[in-house]
Amino acid sequence: MTSKTVLAIDDSRTIRSLVSQTLVDAGFDVTTAVDGEDGVSTFQGTRFDAVITDINMPKLDGFGVIAAIRGGAANRKVPILVLTTENSPEFKDKARDLGATGWIVKPFEDRQLVDILKLVTGADNA
Amino acid sequence: MSNDTLRETFFAECEELIESLTEGLDIVASGDWDKETINAIFRAVHSIKGAAGAFGYNDLVTFTHAYETVLDLIRSDKLEISAEILRLITRSSDALAELVDTTRQEGSASLEPLADLIAELESVASAAKAESPPEPEFTFAPLAVMQIDPIELDKPAGPSGFTIRFKPHASFYLNGHEPRRYFTALEPLGELEIDCDATAVPTLDAFDFDAAYLSWTLTLTGETDEDSIRTVFSFAMGLCDLDITPLEAEDDSDAGIPDFIASTGIGLGEPEVEPVVLPVTAAKPEPAPVAAKAEPEAEKTNAPKAAKSSGNPVATTLRVDPDRVDRLINSVGELIINHAVISQKLESCGLGNDSEIMAALDDYRYLAREIQEGVMSIRAQPVKALFQRMGRVVREAGEATKKPVNFISEGEGTEIDKTILERLADPLTHMLRNSVDHGLESAEKRIAAGKPEVGIVRLSAAHRSGHVVIEVSDDGAGLNRERILAKAMEKGLVPPDAKLSEAEIDNLLFAPGFSTAESITNLSGRGVGMDVVKTTITSLGGKVGITSVPGKGSTFTISLPLTLAVLDGMIIGVGEETMVLPLSSVVETVRPSRRDIHEIGPGECVLSVRGSYVPVVDLAHLFGMRTAKTRPADRSYVLLDAGGSNIAVAVDAIQDQRQVVIKSLEGNYGTVTGIAAATILGDGKIALIIDSEALVGLVSPRRNTRALIELEA
Amino acid sequence: MSEEETQDRGNTIEFVSLSAGGQGFCVEITSIREIRRWSQVTALPFSEDSVLGVMNLRGAVIPIIDLASRLGLGTTEIGSRNIVVVVAIGKRIMGLLVDSVSEILSVESETIRPNPTLRRDGGTSHVTGLLPVDDIMLRVLDLDALFANEAEEAA
Question: C150 in contact with B at a CB cutoff of 8 Å?
Fold first, then answer.
């Protein structure tokens, strides 16, 4: 079985490293993007099995990313997970209304992230 | 990537974020800011908070949270940036920088010293919140539980099974969910029976791609509990109807189809899990036009933002192991030496400068230099981050001394070797504190002197003829030479009847053990003086000097090499050997007349230079080398500034001044007293580089600085 | 020397035999980097008598040590016939001035006799064993022990 591909969008290098390390260890292929714009343009070029995005980012924020992906043509129904420190219901509702699949609050547990990714991508539950 | 590497990544990123934070605050302070400036400031703090949490740096999270809350209020126009607020967020930025530093060095930090600041941030935040209209966010209901707990597959036993009725809404699919995956996730909980109800699926001409027509009844038998099932569905909360009933209870309920399914109409066969995979007919607009419509829209939203955000470009950088760069620098050094060797050999073959091969060799030299410059520039970094840190130092010093001070930095883009940059922080900190503490007058005195109340401390950097020149200046009262001289005499640094030039008095500041502070203040009285500053600068191959105008202020000038890999050297002959004196410590070369040299004991001489007696170090004698020239007057003398005191080095020949590549002796051998390092000359031979400061102690341990400024009687 | 891979199979050890101060020694081949002719060195001040100076080895500054002098066997008379054996001791590279280098020996470890003069006070000798080859006896040199002091200093 080929690895599931994940696009991780975060303006923090540290978080990008953390996420990719965790997911690569779990057998995912991870591509990272440094801001929303970069994320959306990366998304348009490749087929991903899931997208993880931060909310507070320069150029285009996470809401913009969700809206752009859901409003686009290719692979618009990809699972999109929001990974952020924001925890307010207002934010969550907004993200969900725009089409976010799930919400993960930083700091995250490695296993939690992997489990969720496996769930939404349908990767092996092993 | 190890955890430590990640941690390094984190702190390196923090440094950059604090840099952009400081930058943003500077722009705000200048008044010329817009919304994106505030956004960038907020994001910097927010990013630190987010990543700090990942490493469990809770103090950092607590502080950044309080800070971020205030910034968020500014961002959402609920708080205006008054002078007071600007001060608060600037102070917080300084505190954050320090907190990050401490956390990096000590693994944790205490919030105790920041308690007041946090309280202030919190009270500002709650005041601003109270003023703005009540937050609607808490009225949203029901709470969509999208926050995920780890999916636990081994929950304790419960009833022997459940019936799960599951009807996804259209939004379930639109948000990227797929029912099948939920079933997969349920499988480990027990035996799963899936019954799909596709009765609601309309005929194709009525089919809405974005609508949801299917529902499922799942029977899960096994030792599990409702919570485990809900956890599996936690993602889909609010996006589906979910009804979970224990199997026992099932008998009591209406055995038929639950309401939400019952209402859906006639059955159709095939359980089609994903609406998207249904064959597309012409009945509905095809995805293609949708795409054509959606894409320009996406571009439209992106493009103007891209143009707007040009002020905050993402620098593309390459992260390289410093060792690799060092190896490269070393190899390039070899290349240059190699050029010199070839050139020398060719010349000794009698090939003139106009020969073709010499011309080609010139190209070689040119290319080698170009590569050297390129490689050196890899290690070079702008002084900006350091200067920003120094800005904090000045502000803190201003607060501590209650002197209003304005910090101005210039030439932040000037690049300098990373290693030098790192080692500059301490001396600059000391100098800047000194400038505020001793240089600037109190506000009252300034006003009395007809000066603006707010003092100015300026830090500038510039490239000047192959060097980096850093200046620290203040617009204070200038050096009090009378007091300096009195202090030096009192401390025995100069004889009571000494007559020194202004420059000589100024330079007493750098003499070991000298401190101008009349009372030891918290700020600069930390047991280190300007002598330590000077030692550090000298060890970096640099020089430091001072100029001062009474009533107008003082300027310290530091001149540094661009890199530590090469050194400006004076090539000298000592006996049969060739050696190198660091040009940074050379004051002047002297050809004294016979009567300027006074023997004062066997092998001991002093040289009189403009009225001062300077001890003579005979390098050949010191290093045990044979020399043909034994008469002192036959030799050349180089006056060296050896850490606050002058010595005259007797040499057999002064050959040349040039840059040499520094080669450590320590790697393969060890340290050698009086020798700083080695270099390789054009002929491939090794020349030792002399450690000027070490010479003082070597020659005559009895001599101290006191004896060195003796005046002619 | 790298062409002949060290064969540790069956406890075979390869040594290079050399002579210094009129005596026969051997050094394990694994610590030898290269063998060069003597060339002029730059003297180091304040150094031990056995330290002849430093030499430029393709851009690295390496110390050259008179092995005989280091072993207390008098000083080697320096001439162009002398040989410098470049060795790696820990992370350091240094050159040993010797009279001559003769051959590479492949010996079974059992043929190495213990040095009967080994000290019992816990101190280490730099001659760890004796190796009879034909009619002569070679002293097995432990370079690490011989330069233990410098190793600490340079570390």
Answer: yes
